[in-house]
Design goal:
Helices cover 31% and strands 24% of the residues. The protein has 346 residues and is an alpha/beta fold. Strands 3, 5, 6, 7, 8 and 15 form a six-stranded antiparallel beta sheet that branches. Strands 11-10-9-12-13-14 form a six-stranded parallel beta sheet, sandwiched between helices.
Length: 346
Amino acid sequence: MKGLYCRAGVNDAEPKFVIQETSLPEALGSHQVRVQVKACGLSPLDLKLLSDVGIQRDLIPVGREVAGVVLQVGDKVSFFQPDDEVIGMLPLDSPCSGLCDSIDIDEHLLVQKPEKLSSVCVAGALRDGLCAYTALHTHARMAAGHTLLVMDGASSFGLMCIQLACYHGVKVLTTSHTPQTHTFLEQLRPSVAKVIPLYKDSSDLLSVVLEETGGLGVDIVVDSGVRLQEEESSEDMKLLPHKHDIITVLGVGGHWVTSHKDLQLDPPDCRLLFLKSASLTFLNHEVWTASSAQQGRYLHILKDIVEKMSAGVLRPQPEEAVPLYEATVAMETVQRHQKKKAVVQL
């Protein structure tokens, strides 16, 4: 069978994605489940993170968010049986590519897929749902009555944050990057309190947020990247808030959850966080599968995400599925961040 793999570039060269022949071992581990893959989500590959945790291979498996049907179970598996529909995420060190016809995965990394959810939908939204849940529940301790600012609410991750927060009675403010996404966000149901058009003037963020909160600031900020310098040349970077603006819009005791991996704070920024008794948390969704310390909690999160999708609480934007022979091109597009997500239907 075939799988999608990444051959890391040398000296900052772009990584190459190739389809390779692969096979599964005949013997199945005692707690392993063999799954026939129906759909696989493709997200950008963080080669630096893999290197940091000591995973260095000539060919790195690609595609980790999978949905499929159980073919076979190990002799100590208690959660699943053949023909069960399941979803899950392959761990960082998995030797399997999620785009193989069949994969072997530990039973403790899977949950049942509700019958009414399509495999393509859940494989495309699982990672963003996990990120949103981690940011708002695990890190920010979101509660009814809080005020949340979601940067770039029209992104797949931002949309999950908005819907999850609205469900829990949180007042939501968000930002838009284009006139089209602004219209989309204003028409969302349940509705957000305010959509701030950063494409018009990014300097409006602070004044609008303080006006909407009576000058108190928000309880939670979830960003999609920040600017470290005042002046940025690229148009995309100009739409990102400056780190000082994020800290300024935080209220007393507020939580800032950032996706910026190399964030640097100056002493005045730290002083302002101290004065507000505010906290900063880094969002690394890979930590759930990189460590087994909170495996039960991770499974609870996965189960809650798919149940909320099934109930219509979380309504991800549908991704158009591509066939396996287009997977290489689709992954190259995702890796260059020209598109945030792709889904391959097998």
